[in-house]
Task: structure prediction
Amino acid sequence: MKKSDVIIRKATLKDRTALYPLVAGLMLHHRLLAKNKDHLAQLIEVDDISKLRRQWFTKHISSKNSLVLVAQMNEEIVGYSLNFIKDNVRVYKLRKLGHVADLYIKKGHRGQGIAKQFKDIIFSWFKKKRIKYLSIATHAENKKAHSIYKKWGFFDYHIEMRKKL
Ligand SMILES: CC(C)(COP(=O)(O)OP(=O)(O)OC[C@H]1O[C@@H](n2cnc3c(N)ncnc32)[C@H](O)[C@@H]1OP(=O)(O)O)[C@@H](O)C(=O)NCCC(=O)NCCS
Result:
């Protein structure tokens, strides 16, 4: 695949149905990475994803404070990224954060620079919106994503821990 074969564009409401299997793919990816039962127990069932995500995509595709991108190859959506401006916790001086919520490229299309193209567009979009800091999160087992995010200039900021009762 040549870079020029991929079109990166903003998602429209018509893309929602094509996006659900990609969200399921993202969930499945984390299931396969999960090494212990406590991590596995917290992942939502893949079957529930489309119902849950319909409103989520509708809201973000329609909002001027969100950026939903898709990577299209011929007629197929091979990747997506969902980003939005969020209010920071009110005790902090920094009021707004740009949040990179979802980033997923289908297997078979990875390692070809699609996420990098998303990243460049996402960073410029947030800059135009005068956002100073971005947040991104991934599961602790997702070492590859963590190292890519570091390469892109993200630093570790917050460690969330969980405990089973
Ligand atoms: C993580 C993911 C989004 C990367 O997408 P991709 O299109 O394959 O990434 P790219 O080819 O654009 O490469 C992005 C960068 O990562 C680097 N990279 C690629 N594979 C890497 C690896 N295994 N380890 C470290 N860096 C890697 C590339 O060199 C590139 O660097 P650059 O931006 O400085 O040029 C993709 O692998 C994916 O969807 N994985 C499954 C879902 C997932 O983990 N999502 C993110 C967490 S929520």
Remarks:
- The helical segments are 16-33, 37-41, 49-62, 114-128, 143-151.
- The domain at 3-151 is CATH 3.40.630.30 (Aminopeptidase).
- The pocket of coenzyme A is lined by residues 26, 29, 103-105, 110-116, 138, 142, 144-145, 147-148, 151 (CB under 6 Å).
- The beta strands are 6-10, 66-73, 76-87, 96-105, 134-136.
